[in-house]
Amino acid sequence: MEILKKAMEGIGVLDEVSMKRAQERLDSLTKPRGSLGVLEELAVKVAGIKKDVFPRINNKVVVVMAGDHGVVEEGVSAFPQEVTPQMILNFLSGGAAINVLSRHEGAKIVCVDVGTAADINHPALLVKKVKKGTDNMTKGPAMSREEAIKAIEVGIETAWEVIDKGAELIATGDMGIGNTTPSSAILAVYADEPIENLVGRGTGVDDERLLKKINAVKKAIKVNKPDPGDPVDVLSKVGGLEIGAIAGCIIGAASRRVPVIIDGFISTAGALIASKIEPKTVYFMIPSHVSQEPGHKVMLKLLGLEPMLHMNMRLGEGTGAVLAMNLVDAALKIIKEMATFEEAGVSKEL
């Protein structure tokens, strides 16, 4: 708990002076005011995070948190749990979608085993296992409160480690068969909507499995009665180890004033938990895309975040977040490299 407390104490707010100067700079550039839309908003936000009108972001890292879920016993996934370690090894050998997109963007991947059911041996894997997968949340809590806190602190420590090694921009990623079910359950605790509207097909389950997912979420909430006023209670009862670690990664990055690009449904579930633990973490979140999961739009709305990309993606891994890194680069280049009206000798008057 001390690591979490220390991180929370370090989380501040956006620097208003830098944001004002950034906006003034953008308004002086050779374009109509506000004509670059979200790119301008992004430049101002990063300036506020970094306390610098011209921040440099050279080192980018995708942190992929991995964990397994006992709720797969309920038949909620189209894939067996054995796929989790197989995909982790795929990440580590460079063959997954996140590897391709990260190479394209020039980002490093850090893969962390927070709670897989299998023992995975690979020199590039960070093994910080809290336990071998969560318990079946339809029968009781997914994990203990102590385990939930430990998962969060794994995320905080991982964020600090990659930042200490030079990371200036972090993207969240996930791997864990069955993890859309606990993500849906977390959302159901906070959203004022029928559970049927919040649970999607995840990896592409058929109607029968979708019904099993919906029933699993309903049963988990009924059995565990998670307290929405206590986000650690919610995480421990109906969450996932990698979801907790993602929340911690966001908290850790925010405590060091490093922007975090949030990926899809699972990452945003982690972001939601982080925001409930410390609302100021939202200042440091950059939303990337909206996934095909129906609950993702609801999650983003709860966070007050507007996604930049609409790509009909539902893969996870951090793929949408990595694509958005290019937009961060573009926004920072606009504010730094574009000429002002005065520099270009262009009249501002009609």
Strand content: 5-15%
Overall mean pLDDT score? 97
Radius of gyration based on Cα positions: 20 Å
Total helical elements: 14
Helix content: 40-55%
The CATH topology of the largest domain is what? Rossmann fold
Protein name: Nicotinate-nucleotide--dimethylbenzimidazole phosphoribosyltransferase
Pfam families: DBI_PRT (PF02277)
Active site: 317 (proton acceptor)
Enzyme class: transferase
What would you say this structure looks like, in words?
- Catalyzes the synthesis of alpha-ribazole-5'-phosphate from nicotinate mononucleotide (NAMN) and 5,6-dimethylbenzimidazole (DMB).
- Keywords: Cobalamin biosynthesis, Glycosyltransferase, Transferase.
- The protein is an alpha/beta fold and 350 residues long.
- It folds into two domains: 65 residues, 5,6-Dimethylbenzimidazole Phosphoribosyltransferase, Chain: A, domain 1 (Orthogonal Bundle), CATH 1.10.1610; 267 residues, Rossmann fold (3-Layer(aba) Sandwich).
- 49% of the residues lie in helices and 9% in strands.
- It is built from 14 helices and six strands.
- It has a six-stranded parallel sheet, with helices on both faces.
- β5, α11 and β6 form a beta-alpha-beta unit.
- α6 packs across α10, α9 runs antiparallel to α11 and α11 runs parallel beside α12.
- The longest helix has 20 residues.
- It starts with a helix and ends in a 6-residue tail after the last helix.
